[in-house]
């Protein structure tokens, strides 16, 4: 039986480079579609040396290129996107890449009759949650062009499901972190800020009382969820991917202080902050994907510091 081929947009980026090795371990061939603006050519070259990975150096904004490159592929993973902070700084580029790119990939997948499309959606589709844990059926209230494009992406998938029978799963990633992440990443900027100060023996500075929280999920567990979503029996649903645990900024500071091994106390900057908390309800991930997280925040953050300091 010939190997199935997975078409993966943004496959040379942070999450993609954690997904591709898992796909190879499972016996898939992989076609990476990436404009290499932020992609890692050296890592892609190493993966290509296996003989089961090829790179199409192109942009999701060009529908003809997407359609041509997807020919012969069995499954699709769509990761390519412009980040949250970039989407606010440049809404035009964000809409172009995230909205037009989404549509080009989904339309091509529907035309080619792929077995399953897995879309990297985001917990940001919920906006500021009214209750915890956050469930897939909660009200959606996306606040930035990035978040809006993720919600619209899910709606577009439903359109192609109805009109052409496209089978999909949208993974609503919570706060992804891990080795290989760019220091400018929106949700990890607080980690980088703390680590920078701790490395020079300075205490981390926390706004307010540090009660604002995030659901930090390790990129290895994110990659596992993508593979599980490609192979799940049930489709056509959004699925939260997080740990189900909200880690406050104050707790994060304590974890990082311990990991770096410095004797400092956090400093609190007394000012008003909009306290927001995030934690995923991951019941559906367990039921639909047979997935749950394997890396605890404290372990993942400690390992990340070891890599940073090494």
From TrEMBL:
InterPro entries, A to Z: Epimerase_deHydtase, NAD(P)-bd_dom_sf
NAD-dependent epimerase/dehydratase domain: residues covered: 6-242
Signal peptide residues on this chain, from the entry's feature table: none
Listed Gene3D superfamilies: NAD(P)-binding Rossmann-like Domain
UniProt xrefs under Pfam families: Epimerase
Keyword Transmembrane appears in the UniProt entry: yes
Keywords: Membrane, Transmembrane, Transmembrane helix
Keyword Nucleus annotated: no
Membrane-spanning parts: 6-24
Entry similarity comment: Belongs to the NAD(P)-dependent epimerase/dehydratase family.
Alphabetical list of PANTHER family matching this protein: DTDP-D-GLUCOSE 4,6-DEHYDRATASE-RELATED (PTHR43000)
Designated name of the protein: UDP-glucose 4-epimerase
The organism of origin for this protein: Micromonospora haikouensis
